[in-house]
Amino acid sequence: MSCEPIESIVTVLESLKTIKRPPLLMRTARHGTQEYNRATDLRRILRLPATPPPGAGTVRLLIELEDLQESLRTRPPHEIGNPWRPARHVEVLIALIAEARLMAQVVPSLP
């Protein structure tokens, strides 16, 4: 596990609480976490040559990537650019949920 300060991890976990997505999108992503393979899936999703270490930095990258997917999903239909791909959005959410759970394991229970 990474050696990040607990405050940094808690801050990231708190920011995850503000994310609101359609229930079907979230149910699909939660279901997909059962098949999540960190070693291969995370590297592919982040498009990196190697799997990054678990921790707040990795979760922050996934939050940024998911935010991009959400902006594609919610933009006006008449705008031209990269299309929103539901499958891509779901795979990013799967990784985000799984990595946040992994990171949360190191945080002691807060009162």
Polypeptide structure, described:
- With 111 residues, the chain is mainly alpha-helical.
- The protein has one domain.
- Helices cover 61% and strands 0% of the residues.
- It is built from 5 helices and no strands.
- It has helices at 6-16, 23-32, 38-46, 56-74, 86-104.
- Helix 1 (6-16) runs parallel beside helix 4, helix 3 (38-46) crosses helix 5 (86-104) and helix 4 packs antiparallel against helix 5.
- The protein is globular and about 45 Å long.
- The model has no long low-confidence stretch (mean pLDDT 87).
Q: Can you summarize this structure?
A:
The chain is built from 5 helices and no strands.
Task: Describe the protein's topology.
Layout: H1 6-16, H2 23-32, H3 38-46, H4 56-74, H5 86-104
Helix pairs in contact: 1-4, 2-5, 3-5, 4-5
Q: Averaged pLDDT, please?
A: 87
Cα-atom Rg, whole angstroms? 14 Å
Main sheet specs: none
Q: Strand tally, please?
A: 0
Features:
111 residues; 5 helices; 0% strand; mainly alpha
